[in-house]
Every structure is written in structure tokens, then in C-alpha cells.
TrEMBL record, chain A:
A single MF term (Gene Ontology): peptidoglycan glycosyltransferase activity
Swiss-Prot/TrEMBL keywords: Cell inner membrane, Cell membrane, Cell shape, Cell wall biogenesis/degradation, Glycosyltransferase, Membrane, Peptidoglycan synthesis, Transferase, Transmembrane, Transmembrane helix
Annotated family: Belongs to the SEDS family. MrdB/RodA subfamily.
GO BP, one annotated term: peptidoglycan biosynthetic process
Organism: Pseudomonas mangiferae
Membrane disposition: Multi-pass membrane protein
Protein name as annotated: Peptidoglycan glycosyltransferase MrdB
From TrEMBL, chain B:
Protein's UniProt name: Peptidoglycan D,D-transpeptidase MrdA
Topological relation to the membrane, as annotated: Single-pass membrane protein
Assigned keywords, A-Z: Carboxypeptidase, Cell inner membrane, Cell membrane, Cell shape, Cell wall biogenesis/degradation, Hydrolase, Membrane, Peptidoglycan synthesis, Protease, Transmembrane, Transmembrane helix
Organism of this sequence: Pseudomonas mangiferae
GO cellular component, one term: plasma membrane
Residues that span the membrane, as ranges: 21-41
Gene Ontology annotations of biological process type: cell wall organization; peptidoglycan biosynthetic process; proteolysis; regulation of cell shape
Principal location listed in the UniProt entry: membrane
Stated role: Catalyzes cross-linking of the peptidoglycan cell wall.
Active site: 327
GO-annotated molecular function: penicillin binding; peptidoglycan L,D-transpeptidase activity; serine-type D-Ala-D-Ala carboxypeptidase activity
UniProt xrefs under PANTHER family: PEPTIDOGLYCAN D,D-TRANSPEPTIDASE, PEPTIDOGLYCAN D,D-TRANSPEPTIDASE MRDA
Length: 381, 629
């Protein structure tokens, strides 16, 4: 034993040999397992929600494959290396958003995409979901914690620019996620509680003042319908009434796979994208949703462990923010479909149909893996 | 004092982040618990509620369209109401193959391929999923029975009772009240999609169009439970719609009918206005059409017939018809001349039968080739002497003429609430420079003085100009709505009253017009002789084809449709005006011979009691400051 111990410590080669394939690929086994479980579940639910469309499943599966490749590629880079490219990435990201803004106003419509026909077509806002926390983490990691007022203000300014540009697209869901990912970095960096309390306390009177003195009646009406969609049952409220009935009629164990009635027959216009949880709730019941939530919680738990174990401050802030933002996806999506929150376009992570969000999410997990697997050996003991 | 050097304390940073991780974990757990609680509430506590709805049944939100406001004439006679009517609706999502279902409908009802095409077009107008789209209206009993027998072959097809607009007075008010029709794609884009979600019809012209927001009302909705075949089983929740506002019109159906009878089948227009209030009492454009044809969609054949008819029944002559006012404008020009100071009541002009501008050869003819000799203002109006008014217009000049006539509403929209009223044209130097790139010639001013040339007016404008002479310059925009849900309409853009230097100028104009009817040499004395009260009137002629210099108007050479339009305007009782009328008879040729009797018949219908005498309320002249004649 003693002899072995000596050799183990002194020789990295032995450790290398012991490293599994996953470790050599810089992939975290727990995260990978949970992601594969979600992907499999997603295909099941999508098959039902899409009206048994193999075509759709094939597309979703291939997006998942592309996302996994992106995840593994990103995991190969050392966080320190990634951090070096963050400021340039942020500047380019913001410039692309401005390009989209200007083009959109000229072309009327199609305001989210950058499209060079035959070459590439993408939404710059999606990149921002990862670049945003990276930028704030890069900025704060060089400074002492908790951040001082000056640094908080600079951070908020850096969050505000892409946030406002995305709101103008208009894409409320994505802008909210960008805002969350940036502010979670501040939170993880130990933003002082009294400042948080102060910000909340300041928002209330400003909002009340705007409401009473600045806003027009039609604007107030729009906000009221936004906050309470069911007051507008012929508009957005229609979706909510239908999705609530779908979820509620699922009961504890659900009606069984492919046996949902509410969510088929086109009652839910977005049953395979943002409102897919209604299909899941109807066919698999409370048990099904709770199982899904359990998988999500395990993912989040793993993410928080990675945050706590990260060696660099940049890694910690980045991992913490990505994990918490992931939770925001879940919370906002299920909250809006079940009628708790206003309707903003946020997909249910890994379950909703949509290639772009899959690739972005998996890239985020790639960053988490990079943070975790590039630690120095000494600390892993 | 030197600042202490800040060192980066990695241990402290790590501790700080770890604390935040714990806070985050707690928050995640708490919020997840909230989500689970919400799902527990929906799926366990409310399970019964939701599952009953879902067990073979569906929750469905459907809009409840508001009832369209009714339209009455001034006496409360219904002009537009809503009649229950059976329509055939198709809910595309429940049909399986909707094209095949349409085939079955066509087969069962024995319809044509044209109808099939129409159905397909209407199906495409569906706006929301699960919306029953009406494709056929006014089903007969037999059609309903045929559908019922074949119901098993027609999934998603239903016969529903709907309120559909109906115009019990038929063609009488087609040009004033207008009609509703199915919402077309262009209108759909501009409408409030929520408020119109249950509405299939919208005002297309006339009052129905102008007061569309008031007549429509506010949509309601109900949450209903339907079975798998789409039949409503029960209503879960209901918010009632707010019905549209009722409108009482200023029109009087008896006067309207009398005016139509007075025209007697000829093409033309009649407008009657109460000069004290601006209320339009009758508005006739003949020929007319049955507005009910348009409500549920007019057939191609019927529409082609209306559209291609030489008599142009769809053409609104009152609001869209443009005619030179001819001599009917002379009373207005007279007031303008008096106020501008270029003439006095005593001014005399010698008429040899024509007028010549100094240094020009061109002879501007009086209609009476032999001339009227010396004429003053009264005679000029009575005899409709052109020479006097050539001279007057020449003295005024185009600029002042334009200014005065514009104040009487020529060349602009005069009505308060009429849809698509034409502006007409009151020419000016400026106008000619811009549109024709030419300077104004003095000769063009002369013919404006007798209402010819570039000037174009609608019958409504002629009636309003006459009403202004009757009301001594008091401007109230002519309007069709008397009250909207009890409230009179408000004019957002009132015209300024016409104030003249001496109010007696109005009397000069009126006096001349009375002489037209009652003077020994008045042009319309034959009509005036038969009147039971005094009328102030003026005839006019609107040329259809131009007559060249030196040529004479020879009716035998002209086709019927190239003959002049006969015009006549007037108000009565002359000393206490209660009604101002303008009449245009298309190709009627003689203002005083053809149009004047129509004017008098309309006035009689309004002013005379059953005993053939002036109704008592119109008899005594009001105590007015005007000097006694």
C-alpha cells in the first residue's frame, strides 16, 4: 500500500492510464447520462406531440447529435483559454445584434436571424446566452469579491446592451434568459444582499410611478393582459386555458402515451414546442412531470457541485450562472404553461422541439464540463 | 495614510461563491416545490373538473358576436334590423377531409360548381382553429332538412341560427344607409382581430360604414364544453357582448317615398335639408338597388347586372355625382356680389342677348338670344339672365369668387357623416396653375358666374348652398344621424357661419328666387302658380356635351343620354324656410320644366297637411329682425 501510494503521487502516467475514455474526452459521465435520459424522453413525448411524425423526430435527434459534438468540442478547451476570447466574442455578438436590429428595421420582419444564403443562418441572440455570463464572469473574476459598486454598474451596463437589443427584436423569452444569465454571475460573485434589496425597493416606486403618471391606457391594458392572459381568452389566454385543461386532465398517472386528447387535434397550436409540457402532463400525469423535474434537479445539483469544486473564479462564476439559468428555463416554461407566469417564448430545455436551443443548451453543458475536467489533478484527490 | 494593499483572497472568494451556491440550491428547491404544488392543484385537486371536460369533451372558447345596432328613420320606422337566419357552417378541424365534405354539401343541396368555388373561398377566411366558418346563408326549410338527413356524411357541418342584417325598406335607403357585407381579406387585416372574432359582416357603405364602430358593439365570449362532434353541451362561463348603438336617422320615410314618386322612374337625385338644423330629410339617388342582396354575398350574375346596367344603379348620384351647378348657383353669386360691393340691388346692366369682354371678339350668350334689355338683380334672378351674371363675375374676379363660393361649401366635403362624399371642384388660379399648368383666363371667370366651366358640385352641395341662403348663412353640416344611442352627433370640424356686411343681402337673393316662382315673368312661374305657399327657387342646366361657339343646342340632334341634366333648387316657405331641396334629373333638359315640379312635390309632401293647406306649425313667420317687404 505504502509503496503504491508513493508511486501514485509521483507519477502522472499511472493516473493517465487509469483515466477512462470519458475522462480522456473531458466528458462528465453524470451529466452525460442525465442528458441522454432527457433526450430519450424528449423523443418519446415529441412522437406523440407531433402526431407521430418520424420526420420531426429525425430532425430533433440529429440536432441532439450536433449539440453533443459541440458540447464535446467545447469541453476540450481549458476555461482559461476560453476566457481569453470572451471580450472579443462579446463585442462581435453585440455587433451582430446591432446588424440584426438595423436589417430588421429595413426588411420588416425576420428580425432575429442573420442569413447569408447558402453559407450560414443563425440567431446571434442564441450565442449571447453563453457569451453573456462568460463576459461578466471574465470581468468580475479579475477583481476582488464581493464586487464593488463601480464594477456592478459596469456589469449591469454590459448586460443592458444585448438585453435591450434582443427586447427590440422582439424576443422577450431570450432577452429574459440573457438578463438572468448575466445577473446570476453577479449573484454568484456575492453581490451584497442590501444592494439586491435596494434594487428591488427602487423598482417598486418607479413602476408604480410609471403606471400612474406615464403610461397610456392601452399600454396598461397590454401589460394587464400580459400578466393575466386568461383575461383575454380569445387571444393568448386561449392557449393557457387549453394547456391547463390538458395538464389537469392527466391526473396522477396520465392517460398513457399517445392517448392524450386535449393536446392532440390541434387544440394546442404550439404543442410540440413551447407548450410540450402540456402533452407530457396529459399523457404521463403528475408522476411523469415529477420524474422530469427530478432529472432536471439532478442536472442542476451536478452543476452546483461543479460550481463549488471549480478551481478558478472564472470557472465558478460561469458554472454557477449557467446552472441557475438552466433552472430559469424550466421554471418559466412550466410556470407559463400551467398558468402561473405570463407567456414568454421560453422552450422546455431538451424536451421542446427546436435545434437551435438544443445546441445552445448543450454548448453550455460543454462549458460546465470544461470547467470540471480541466482541474489540476492535485485537487481531485 | 497609505491605502492597505488589496490582495486577492482566493479562499475567501471560494467561500463566498459556495455560500451563494447553497442559497441558489435552496431557491431552486423552493421554486420547484411551487411548481409541483401548482401541478398538484391542477392534476389532483382540480382533476375532476379538467377530466370531465376532457373525457370525450373539449373546452372551447368561442366569441359571442354583439348584436348590431338598429337603424330607424326619424319617426321610428325600422330601416335596418337583424333577422335570425339559418346558415351552414363548417369546422375544418372536425371534417376530416374538408374538400370532400364540400363536395357532399354541393351534391346534397344540388348546387353548382360556382357555389363550390365560393364555399372554398369562404372556408379560407377562417381565422382561428376550430372556428365554424359560415359558407351558406339563408337556408330554406328544405335545405335544412336535406342537411339533417345527410348529417352522418357531413362531420363538422352544422346548421346554426345567426342574426343577419336585413333592410325591410329595400331599395329606399340603399344610397344613404348603405349596407353591410362579408368582411373581406383587406378589411380583416385592418380590423381589431379580437373585437371582430365573432363577426362576419361589416359596414361597406353609407351610414353602416360611417358609424361602423358605434353600430358594431363589443364582443363577448363563452367558454363552452363541446362533444367530440363539436356540438355545444353546456356553457361554462360567459361574458356578455355589448350590443352596438342604435341610430335614429334624420330621414323621413314618407318624404323619401314622396321624393322617389316625384322623380317618377327618371334617373336623378333629390336631397332635402331642414335649413335650421342641417338634418337631411330625404336623400334619393335613382335608380337604386336592393341592399339585402349584398348582405350574404351577392351572386356573380346579380352583381354583373347591377354593375353593367347603363342606368348605373350602384352610382350614388347625391354624393358622388358631379355636375356644374348651372344657374342654380346664381343666388349665391348674387349674395357674394352684394357683399363684395361690386353691385347693389339697384345696379342695372343692359342685355342685348350676349356679353362681350372689352377687347375680345368672343360673345358670351344669354340663354334668351333676343336679350332682356335693362336688368337689375331681381330681374336677373327672376329671368335667370346670364348677361347680368357674366358682368357680375367679371367685376368680382376669380379670386373673390373662389373665396365666396368656398365659404358656401363648393369644392369641399360638406356633410358630417356621409361615406365617400365627393369634394367637387371650385376652381382657382392656383388650381389651374397646378393641374393644367396654365394661367387663368378672364373668360373662365365669366362662365363661373353662371355655374358653368370647371366648377363641379354634388347635388348635396347644391342643396347645402341653398339651405345656407335660406338660413341666412348659418352653417350646420348636413347629417343623416339624428341621434346615436340618444346622443346627437358632434361636428369635429364645424364650418364658420357666413356673415355678410348687411343681412338684407340675404333678402335680395331670396326675393329674386321668389320672383322665379311667383313673378309674372319668372322662369318657373307655372310651378309657382300651383303652390299653396311661397317658394324661393332657382332653375339650372348642367351641360353633358359642350356646345361650340356659334352652334345652337338642338335637342333633336342629341341622343337621349347626351341631353342636358335638369337642375332645380329651392326652399319654402320662403319667409320661414323649413325645407331646402335640390333636384337633379339626368338628361331632363329643362330645370324649370322638369326638375321644378319635383321640388314642389317634395315640399308639398313635407309642408302640407291632409287638407292641402300649410301645416299650422309652418304657417306663422317667426318674429325675425329682417325688414318687412
Amino acid at each position: 500500500m505504502n509503496g503504491n501510494f508513493d508511486r501514485t503521487l509521483s507519477s502522472e502516467d499511472v493516473m493517465r492510464r487509469r483515466a477512462t475514455l470519458l475522462q480522456r474526452l473531458h466528458v462528465d459521465g453524470i451529466l452525460l447520462l442525465l442528458l441522454l435520459v432527457l433526450a430519450a424522453g424528449s423523443l418519446f413525448v415529441l412522437y406523440s406531440a407531433s402526431g407521430k411524425s418520424w420526420d420531426l423526430l429525425a430532425k430533433q435527434a440529429s440536432s441532439f447529435g450536433i449539440g453533443l459534438v459541440a458540447m464535446v468540442v467545447i469541453a476540450q478547451f481549458e476555461p482559461r483559454f476560453l476566457a481569453r476570447w470572451v471580450p472579443a466574442g462579446y463585442v462581435i455578438g453585440v455587433l451582430l445584434l446591432i446588424v440584426v436590429d438595423v436589417m430588421g428595421h429595413n426588411a420588416m420582419g425576420a428580425t432575429r436571424w442573420i442569413n447569408i444564403p447558402g453559407v450560414i443562418r443563425f440567431q446571434p441572440a442564441e450565442f449571447m446566452k453563453i457569451l453573456m455570463p462568460a463576459t461578466i464572469a471574465w470581468y468580475l473574476a479579475k477583481r476582488s469579491l464581493p464586487p464593488r459598486l463601480k464594477h456592478v454598474i459596469v456589469s449591469l451596463a454590459m448586460i443592458a446592451v444585448p438585453f435591450i437589443l434582443v427586447v427590440r427584436q422582439p424576443d422577450l423569452g431570450t432577452s429574459l434568459l440573457i438578463l438572468a444569465s448575466g445577473t446570476f454571475v453577479l449573484f454568484m460573485a456575492g453581490l451584497q444582499w442590501r444592494w439586491i434589496a435596494g434594487a428591488v425597493a427602487a423598482v417598486v416606486p418607479v413602476a408604480v410611478g410609471m403606471w400612474m403618471f406615464v403610461m397610456h391606457d392601452y399600454q396598461k391594458q397590454r401589460i394587464l393582459t400580459f400578466l393575466d392572459p386568461e383575461s383575454d381568452p380569445l387571444g393568448t389566454g386561449w392557449n393557457i386555458i387549453q394547456s391547463k385543461a390538458a395538464i389537469g386532465s392527466g391526473g396522477v398517472f396520465g392517460k398513457g402515451w399517445l392517448l392524450g386528447t386535449q393536446s392532440h387535434l390541434d387544440f394546442l397550436p404550439e404543442s410540440h414546442t413551447d407548450f410540450i409540457i402540456a402533452v407530457l402532463g396529459e399523457e404521463f400525469g403528475l408522476v411523469g412531470i415529477c420524474l422530469l423535474l427530478l432529472v432536471y434537479l439532478l442536472l442542476i445539483a451536478r452543476g452546483l457541485v461543479i460550481t463549488a469544486q471549480a478551481q478558478t473564479l472564472f470557472g465558478k462564476l460561469m458554472a454557477g450562472s449557467l446552472t441557475m439559468t438552466f433552472f430559469v428555463y424550466v421554471l418559466v416554461n412550466i410556470g407559463m404553461v400551467s398558468g402561473l407566469l405570463p407567456v414568454v417564448g421560453v422552450p422546455l430545455p431538451f424536451i421542446s422541439y427546436g435545434g437551435t436551443s438544443l445546441v445552445t443548451l448543450l454548448s453550455g453543458f460543454g462549458v460546465l464540463m470544461a470547467v470540471h475536467t480541466h482541474r489540476k489533478w492535485i485537487a481531485q484527490v | 495614510m497609505p491605502q492597505p494593499i488589496r490582495l486577492k483572497d482566493h479562499e475567501k472568494d471560494a467561500r463566498l461563491v459556495r455560500n451563494r451556491v447553497i442559497v441558489g440550491a435552496v431557491a431552486v428547491l423552493l421554486l420547484t416545490a411551487v411548481l409541483v404544488a401548482r401541478l398538484y392543484y391542477l392534476q389532483v385537486i382540480q382533476y375532476e373538473y379538467h377530466s370531465t371536460l376532457s373525457e370525450n369533451n373539449r373546452v372551447h372558447v368561442q366569441p359571442v358576436p354583439p348584436t348590431r345596432g338598429l337603424i330607424f328613420d326619424r319617426n321610428g320606422v325600422v330601416i335596418a334590423d337583424n333577422r335570425p337566419s339559418f346558415s351552414l357552417t363548417v369546422t375544418r378541424e372536425r371534417t376530416g377531409d374538408w374538400e370532400q365534405v364540400l363536395d357532399v354539401i354541393v351534391e346534397v343541396l344540388g348546387l353548382s360548381a360556382d357555389d363550390r368555388e365560393l364555399f372554398e373561398k369562404r372556408m379560407k377566411q377562417g381565422r382561428r382553429p376550430f372556428e365554424p366558418v359560415p359558407i351558406l346563408f339563408e337556408l330554406s326549410e328544405e335545405q335544412i332538412a336535406r342537411i339533417a338527413v345527410n348529417q352522418f356524411r357531413l362531420p363538422g357541418v352544422e346548421v346554426v341560427a345567426q342574426l343577419v342584417r336585413h333592410y325591410p325598406q329595400g331599395a329606399h335607403f340603399a344610397h344613404s344607409v348603405g349596407y353591410v357585407g362579408r368582411i373581406n381579406e383587406k378589411e380583416l387585416k385592418e380590423l381589431d382581430p379580437i373585437n371582430y372574432s365573432g363577426t362576419h359582416h361589416i359596414g361597406k357603405t353609407g351610414i353602416e360604414r360611417f358609424y361602423e364602430p358605434e353600430l358594431h358593439g363589443q364582443v363577448g365570449y363563452e367558454e363552452v364544453e363541446t362533444n367530440a362532434r363539436g356540438r355545444v353541451l353546456r356553457v361554462l362561463k360567459r361574458t356578455d357582448p355589448k350590443p352596438g348603438k342604435d341610430i335614429v336617422l334624420t330621414l323621413d320615410i314618407r318624404l323619401q317615398e314622396a321624393a322617389e314618386a316625384a322623380l317618377g322612374g327618371r334617373r336623378g337625385a333629390v336631397v332635402a335639408i331642414d335649413p335650421r338644423t342641417g338634418e337631411v330629410l330625404a336623400m334619393v339617388s335613382q335608380p337604386s338597388f336592393d341592399p339585402n342582396l349584398f348582405v350574404t354575398g351577392i351572386s356573380f350574375k346579380d352583381y354583373a347586372e347591377l354593375r353593367d346596367s347603363l342606368d348605373r344603379p350602384l352610382y350614388n348620384r347625391v354624393l358622388r355625382g358631379l355636375y356644374p351647378p348651372g344657374s342654380t348657383i346664381k343666388p349665391v353669386v348674387a349674395v357674394a356680389g352684394l357683399d363684395a360691393g361690386v353691385i347693389t340691388p339697384a345696379t342695372r346692366v343692359f342685355d342685348p342677348g350676349f356679353y362681350q369682354l372689352p377687347n375680345y371678339d368672343h360673345k358670351y350668350r344669354n340663354w334668351n338670344r333676343s336679350g332682356d334689355g335693362w336688368v337689375n338683380l331681381e330681374t336677373a334672378l327672376m329671368r335667370s339672365n346670364d348677361t347680368y351674371f357674366y358682368d357680375l363675375a367679371h367685376k368680382m374676379g376669380i379670386d373673390r369668387l373662389h373665396q365666396y363660393l368656398s365659404r358656401f361649401g363648393i369644392g369641399q366635403r360638406v356633410s358630417l357623416d356621409m361615406f365617400e362624399e365627393a369634394t367637387g371642384l371650385m376652381p382657382s388660379r392656383e388650381w389651374k396653375r397646378i393641374t393644367r399648368r396654365q394661367v387663368w383666363y378672364p373668360g373662365e371667370t365669366l362662365i363661373l358666374g353662371i355655374g358653368q366651366g370647371y366648377m363641379q358640385t354634388t347635388p348635396l352641395q347644391m342643396a347645402q348652398a341653398t339651405a345656407l341662403v335660406a338660413s341666412r348663412g348659418k352653417w350646420i353640416r348636413p347629417h343623416l344621424a339624428r341621434t346615436i344611442e340618444g346622443q346627437p352627433p358632434v361636428d369635429p370640424n364645424p364650418m364658420p357661419d357666413i356673415v355678410v356686411r348687411d343681412p338684407s343681402y340675404w333678402d335680395q337673393a331670396r326675393n329674386g328666387m321668389e320672383q322665379v316662382m311667383h313673378g309674372a315673368r319668372g322662369t318657373a312661374r307655372k310651378v309657382g302658380e300651383t303652390a299653396a305657399y311661397r317658394i324661393a327657387g332657382k332653375s339650372g342646366t348642367a351641360q353633358v356635351v359642350a356646345i361650340r361657339q356659334g352652334e345652337r343646342y338642338d335637342r333633336s340632334k342629341l341622343q337621349e343620354r347626351h341631353r342636358d341634366h335638369a337642375l332645380f333648387v329651392g326652399f319654402a316657405p320662403a319667409e320661414n324656410p323649413r325645407i331646402a331641396v335640390a333636384v337633379m334629373v339626368e338628361n331632363g333638359e329643362s330645370g324649370s320644366g322638369v326638375a321644378a315640379p319635383v321640388v314642389k312635390q317634395v315640399m308639398d309632401a313635407w309642408l302640407l297637411g291632409e287638407d292641402g293647406q300649410l301645416k299650422p306649425e309652418y304657417r306663422s313667420p317667426p318674429t325675425s329682425p329682417e325688414p318687412s317687404r
